[in-house]
Amino acid sequence: MPKILILSSNPRRDLDLNREIADLTSALQRLGTFELRFGFEVRSQELQELLAEHSPRIVHFCGHGAGEQGLLFQDENGREQLISTEILTRIFKTFSDEINCLVLNACDSDRQAEAIVENVNYVIGMSQPILDKAALLFSVGFYKGLAAGKLIEQAYEMGCIAIQIWSETNSQSTQSRQYRKLEYAGKVGQPVQPDLAEYLKPVLLKKSELFPSNVAASGSVPKFPPLPAASKPPQEFVEYVQQEAERKEYKDNARAAYDNFGQFSAQNVASLTKSEYEQRKIVLKKVKSFWIEGFLKPSLQGDAAISLDMKARPDAIADLSQGIEALSVELDTSYEKLRDTQIYEEIGQGRTLLILGSPGAGKTIALLQLAQRLIERGEQNLSLPMPVVFNLSSWAKDQNSIVDWLIDELVEKYQIPKSLSEPWIKQQQLILLLDGLDEVKEDHRNDCVRALNKFIGLFPQTEVAVCSRVRDYEALTERLQISSALCLQPLSPEQVYQSLDSVGGSLAGLKTLLKRNAELEQFAQTPLILNFMSVAYQGWSVKKLMDELHSKEKRNQHLFDTYIERRLERGTTSEFNKKHVLRWLNWLASQMVQEKQTIFLIEKMQPTWLQNQSEEIAYRIRNFMIVGLSVGLSFGLSVGLNDALILLQDVGLSAGVKIVLIAGVKTGLIAGVGIGLIAGLIAGLSKEILPLEKLSWSWQRAKSRLMPEFFTGFICGLGVGLGVGLLPRLDPGLDFRQIFIYGLSFGVIFGLGSGLGGTEVEQQTVSNQGIHNSRNNCLIIGLGIGLSSGLIDGLSYLKTGVDLSSYLHGLIGYSLCFGLSFGLIAGLKYGGAACIQHFTLRQMLHKKNRIPWNYAKFLDFASDRLLMKKVGGGYVFFHRMLLEHFAQMDRYRVPVPVIPESTSQSIAKTNPRTNVDSSNAGNISNTAPPPSNPVQNRIACSNCSHNNSSDSKFCTKCGRQLIKHP
Hints:
Number of strands: 18
Number of helices: 34
Distance between the termini: 74 Å
């Protein structure tokens, strides 16, 4: 097998030699005929050493030529250093017996070729600067000829014809004019623009000794310029060249789309005030904290299976942190995957970067590596558009326009108020990194793409990157307007073993098994699977692995179960029982699948997470009773006591303590029932828990909800006024004017309260922050409105003309009650009811053993064990495949009984139907679950056929709504 030594040197860093050599290498590897060796960033003193070490038949140099002065290499410090033509001639003369051909892909290298060819049989140089793509296609055709057994003269001709074939299908006006040229101070002038056609620029020179003596005696070096083809080249060769040209075009397009992503948006630079500067700084800090520190780094740290040593690959040599090579994406395999699809035909129609791949291939990692680069750029210049990461799965919930969805997501995920987010969206100051198009419910996926295209049409300077599983995207009828598409492919076997070697630990059994079993080796080529295998199967023997992994159907299940077991064994002893950990994560995953959630926020738990209608009714009754009784008792007690004191002062003890107390109780009961009923209805009838996380007021927010909220408040106020009006006053009878004032006051407070919201981005985000903020805001609003309304009522009471003593009684008594009623209702309306509803829901779920009481502590534990990841104030599963695995656990796990912790062990030992020893409770995956309900009492999902409990509303596996047949 002929050996080719590929050399490169570019001390000026003005050529993209790493990618050039990567493209050349992949083309040569596809031919499968040559043994390849490499010398990158060659120093002048290394040239002889490399030639001696590898003894190549062909040397291929990529770099700069300096005309008659020689070729440009670098010294020990990386600075440019010329090797003169004379020295080059002497070096190649030393190896003339071994080297048959030298290819110099450098400008004006035909002059070095003329000197070197005296000692080397064949030398190919460039007479003028040549387009990079033309140079590659020449090499493709040339080496294709050698691989087919052609003579070097014939192979050279095939290289020139390859350029001609490409030139005929690509006009010069549309070609990317990237010439290999050098400006060298003092000796080399400004290069002249090429006059020759591209296919005429490569020149072949042949050693004169190979010719008859009369030719050699002439003193001229024979040159073989390409000749016009007498006939058309073979169709097979034409198709080969065209495919290689298409491949190169795709790779250049993909690299440009990735490398330049965000550059178009950078043209839209905003002028910032000091406040805007601080807000943007907080946003970038959040995105970095949530997705880079919270998600990307935990995915890569310590898991060499997915953070591959890219420098071991010949197509990724230099600094890989900024370019597309930082991704585990092979552009050649990506091209092979896409070239026969409709996706390939759609490339270049828009500005969206599409990242595709199979489950576990690393799409989210690729997206976040792109985000990391954009964040670093944004930190240097905060006036540039800001990258933000979202998951599209939540779009299907309401199917709003992308603008409205983005506003909601920015509030929920990043605590960015609408007053900031809406202008940023409309002024195109955001770069959207959208994960999980395939996680959008299948019925709505085409609608989502349609909405995205509409958004891109409205905001053409907003750059967008979208991730999706490749099969799900191919199934769509609607297509994104994409600039390019990357398809992440499985790892090669070499990368698999390289990764396992770099992990360390005892993986000898796993490596041996993979080498023996091609099917399992293919199974391990998915980055996520390889990562999990390297964690789960430490220390396992070949026999044990074969026994557990022989079944293809149960392979994933066993791997994920074992991975979970290993992760739960990690770290210090936990207070959480393994059985309960599995149950709680199973339930959480099922709910997230059902709700189409990717990020779980504790404060966003809703009554829809209850299992059936009876639980929802119980939840509403509890809220009604808790709020109604607590508010009614507190208000009724204060009103009754106040009324008793006033009556006691008016009539004295002569009327009797019993009469005074009865009057007070009666008054308090009437007031308490009225206010308690209203408060209970506010909490009990709410269909959604809506925390109030940030206080500010905006007319833009208020005007859309002003009238509905006003009428709601007006009705509540009339009820409060009626209750207060039944209390004994100075003048007997109902004061309808006062009742109307109550209604009007409540209506104004409710209406104006609809404008409450945030004006700034929250700097800190912690677990359940929304509920904590709601509690604080409830107290602030309740006290503020209560005191102010009580004072206003007291001042208005003074205008009635009563004497000072009566006025003081009214101010201290009735005005206090008036203020208390306003404060209680306002506090409940704005944050208080959400807190009570949230903790009622949590208490019910905890009692059913679906969640622990300290949920944040448990989720932090799961994140520490790398089963989940903490993203800001929310949590995500380590990977969607792990989420899906947990969601399906109920299909083969023994149900954990809802029993007190203290008695769980004794029941496990005494129950004859449960063959699970309490000391081995975690190893329950192989125990067949007893049927908890008869099959006839369960509902089969029409989508996935999973059997669900008869009182379930949604499938616990796929989340689809269940159809109950009569």
